[in-house]
Design goal:
The structure is a single chain. By secondary structure, the protein is of the alpha/beta class. The chain has 2 domains: about 190 residues, Rossmann fold; about 80 residues, Irregular (Cytochrome-c3 Hydrogenase, Chain A, domain 2), CATH 4.10.480.10. Helices cover about 45% and strands about 10% of the residues. The strands form 3 sheets. A 5-stranded parallel sheet has the order 2-1-3-7-9, with helices on both faces. Helix 1 crosses helix 2, helix 1 crosses helix 8 and helix 2 crosses helix 8. The radius of gyration is 28 Å and the shape is globular. The chain starts with a helix and ends with a helix. Its cofactor is [4Fe-4S] cluster; [3Fe-4S] cluster. Belongs to the [NiFe]/[NiFeSe] hydrogenase small subunit family.
Length: about 350
């Protein structure tokens, strides 16, 4: 009985692991032929050691990660990476937790992947946020020194986030403003999609290099196209069908949310494609517009959140359907004109023929 149960558990684990590799491969935009290579990289027994720092943030990024299921957090920690330090998830606390950190920095110096959740407070030497008596600035510099690369996970770590919004009283900045001498990847979002972190780590393990990034150091496979390009409400935008206010008939019918503030046309992310937490939904599909959370300074530049982006025009409604109707009307007019010409030609021909017969 136990032997059969063990076999079933192994099959289930194998299935989940393959699904994780498949999701990571799809998130990276790689063909299905690469799944086996990604899987092999993820199964490598030499799991990368990770130190995860919590700086100026709300822990929402970790909360979102806890809700992924392929892989779930247990698989991520136990099978894919070696999580050496994470204040929220680790069993240790206090002095024991700090001893774990020191041990990891010594044991894996130069090999660590440093994942940072949260921004860095700089004002007054960073006294506004401390962990174990150390400012976030001191802690980040210390861990980054022993790391091979840094992944800024979430908008706070990437660009400063809500804590850096004007007037930014504690002088919060993104990780890239502090770490200048290490390879760095930004995975923004408030919260970010856990699968984008998985795909980033999978890419590094598979190809032994960082993924291609944009000018904001975001991996292009996740942040290379606008949300607007993949949104399921895009046809309504093209046809000029908009929600005028929340709860109206257009809202009930799933019309475009642009007029009530959706920032999809100016935001780069893969939310409509990969969605969230295996629930198959994302904010726009649930009826709320995108707030542009993967972009720098979104808390300042994307407000008011419920008004459309200044400087962009609402389409006139001449989209695919409108154009088809216009072309159809033109075609009908052309056809009618053709019929008229053909009929006129027929009449002329009959007259000419009759005249010849009379002669």
């Amino acid at each position: 009985m136990n032997r059969f149960l063990a076999n079933d558990l192994l099959k289930l684990k194998r299935r989940d692991f393959l699904k994780a590799a498949t999701i990571a491969t799809a998130a990276m935009g790689l063909p299905s032929s690469m799944i086996s290579k990604v899987e092999a990289a993820l199964k490598d027994p030499a799991r990368p050691p990770v130190v995860w720092l919590h700086l100026v943030e709300c822990t929402g990024c970790t909360e979102a990660l806890l809700r992924t299921s392929h892989p779930d957090v247990a698989s991520l920690i136990l099978d894919l990476i070696s999580l050496e330090y994470h204040e929220t998830l680790m069993a240790a606390a206090g002095h024991q937790a700090e001893e774990n950190l020191e041990r990891a920095l010594e044991k894996y110096s130069g090999k660590l992947i440093c994942v940072v959740e949260g921004g860095v407070s700089l004002k007054d030497k960073g006294i506004y946020c401390k962990i174990s008596g150390h400012t976030t600035l001191e802690l980040l510099k210390k861990v980054a020194k022993h790391s091979s690369m840094v992944i800024a996970y979430g908008t706070c770590a990437s660009f400063g986030g809500v804590a850096a919004a004007s007037p930014n009283p504690t002088g919060v900045v993104g990780v890239s403003d502090v770490v200048k001498d290490k390879p760095l990847i930004n995975v923004p979002g408030c919260p970010p999609n856990g699968y984008n972190l998985l795909a980033t780590i999978a890419y590094i393990l598979t190809f032994n290099k960082l993924p291609e990034v944009d000018y904001l150091k975001r991996p292009k496979f996740a942040y290379g196209r606008k949300i607007h390009d993949h949104c399921e409400r895009r046809p309504h935008f093209d046809e000029g069908r908009f929600v005028e206010q929340f709860g109206d008939e257009g809202h009930k019918k799933g019309y475009c949310l642009y007029k009530v503030g959706c920032k999809g046309p100016v935001t780069y992310a893969n939310c409509p494609v990969i969605r969230f937490c295996d629930a198959g939904v994302w904010p726009v599909s649930a009826g709320h517009g995108c707030i542009g959370c993967t972009e720098p300074d979104c808390w300042d530049t994307m407000i008011p959140f419920y008004e459309h982006v200044p400087g962009t025009e609402v389409p006139s409604g001449m989209g695919i359907v409108g154009q088809a109707e216009r072309i159809g009307k033109f075609a009908l007019g052309a056809a009618a004109a053709g019929i008229a010409v053909h009929a006129a030609a027929g009449v002329v021909k009959k007259v000419v023929t009759k005249e010849k017969e009379e002669e």
